[in-house]
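Class prep. Write one:
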Amino acid sequence: MMTDTSGKGNTEKATSVLKAAWIIAVVTIISKLIGFIRDIVIANYYGATLVSDAYYYAYQIPSLSLILLGGVGGPFHSATVAVFSKLIPNLREKPEEAVNKLYSTFMTATTIFFLVLSVLMFIFPRQIMGLIISSGSAEMINLAAEHLKIMTPLLIIGGIVGIYYGLLIIYKQFMLPNLSPIIMSAAIIAVVMAVPDDNKGYALAWATTIGAVLQLVIQYPNVRKLGFKWRPDFHFFNNPHFREINELLFPAVLSSTVGQIHIYVDMFFTSSISEGAWTAIGYANRVFQFPVGILVTAFLVPLFPIFSRLVAEKDLDGIKSYFNKGVGVLFFAAIPIIIGILTVGMDAVRLVFERGAFDEAATFMVTEALWFLSVSILPYVFRDSITRVYYSFNDSKTPFIVAFSSIVLKYFLNVIFINKMGMGIGGITLSTSLVTLFNACVLGSLIYKKVKMDYRSLFTNLLKMFVAGIISFAICFVIAHGFDKFIHMPKTVFEICKIISVGIVCLVSYTGLNLFLKMEYANELAQRFMRKINAGK
């Protein structure tokens, strides 16, 4: 355990940040649960069909603004926090006139920029969707174009909401920004369930737009209450603070856009596979993100401020220690998730989604995509963790360059797996997994320019986990096969019993084997567990 030499004030500050981070993590978990319910509702009414494909194709463009650019942690939120936090020394007082003027300038520029993009998107939706899904049918392109027109307001809302998020977080109002995605999910659930079956064609697009408007409406009163009033201001030039915002915003926007380019590459190839393919990949991603996203958020949200504090203190040994411990625990928890996906993944997808319009064929498509995506979990958690270390060193350039360079790799892997080998949906998610591995390896190597990481102990423990994981997988596979062959129950009861039984065996065998192999993190967790039991006696 590292000794904190930064003094009582810094220790209390770090503890405060850690508590706030855990609150954010808990809210994120709740948000993902509501989002998962939203996906179940959509799957029930739409399945993996032409209509759902058209919606998800069209949604990729406005989601770039609402989620990637304007979401919590996005460029608009980050730039707002970075600049305005320096200009607001006293959070108990209303912002000064100069600060309000800068806010008005930023809001005016953001609105004009996204308004122009919205108008272009509204006028040329068919051309835009035709370019993205060029291999799709004319009916698919026309449906996607109509969905895109309905969702054009999301572009403007995304930038504005991002600024609101930043201001609220400066004033330590953490809950409202992180609860905001729940509003979108709730709106979609309500509208889709309320609209009659014969009018559900564009219900998803309208529900998404309504949800975005509600996000904006709910944030506005709090921002207004803080003292920020938007009056159109066109002081774009010879404005040092506005220039500082743009200098932060531009590279951050580029970094966020790279991930979207990967999605567009996948959309291009998926449109030539089969009807429902893109919807299936979307569901596979959301199933994947449910455990993995919660796991990564729960650990990396509190770790990020610790990394930043250690960099400020030039405590490189502390960085290595916390990184290995954090990533080691993530690895330890990730391997049972992989085993679960490979052994009972189809059962889980069938249990959650297979009802209404979501049939057996859709279940197989989602599961196939999920199987190949599961192998990316280990490089995924490593990549996201090492990226936080780069950010702690104020280096967002290196992760951007590495991510940008992988676009070409993504394209060629899709050509090989889809066009040459005919792998279909599995080829798309396999290429995603290999690109994630590439990014993790390159980022892990380049970090040596800043700090010489101690990978030996990390990967020694990973090797022990891997051995335990292979043995546990074999045991779980036999039990899953035995269930399919010998157990006869009603479908839903069967799936639940199979998942629970395999899950319990997986956790017991995997944990026991890691303890037998004296894997460091398993021993530490076991000791903590025993201490809590003894303390409760």
